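Hey L., structure's done. Input below.
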Amino acid sequence: MISAFKKYWKECPIFKQHYYLNAEPAIIKTKMGMANSRLVRNPKTVEETLAYLQEQIDHFDVLIRANEVAIEKKCGELKDMIEKQANELNTVSKRAEKRIEDIVLGGVNAQIFGLFLLVHGAIAGFFA
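Output:
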């Protein structure tokens, strides 16, 4: 009971408790990134402002086209990869179906197996 009282007394909010925090640098790793910078002038006349705005439009048009090409390329790669995986899944499923069919029927055709069961049932019924 005395230890519980001591513990409560130490944790009492009346007394100031000190906490220490160690700040360490974090290393951030990225697999990809892109940096882009441009130096521009400050237009002073209306004509310079229009020329500046046209340059901005042209610059962003080039960036958009480059991004579209990159996206189309990536979509094509992903489409090819998906088709390849779909073909692999089809071949694996066909192999699995063939193996299951071989295991269930023991390599015997389904019609022959049914005929065998019919004959077996007739013979068993005759002797029963």
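Residues 50-128 form one domain. The chain has a mean pLDDT of 82.

-- N.
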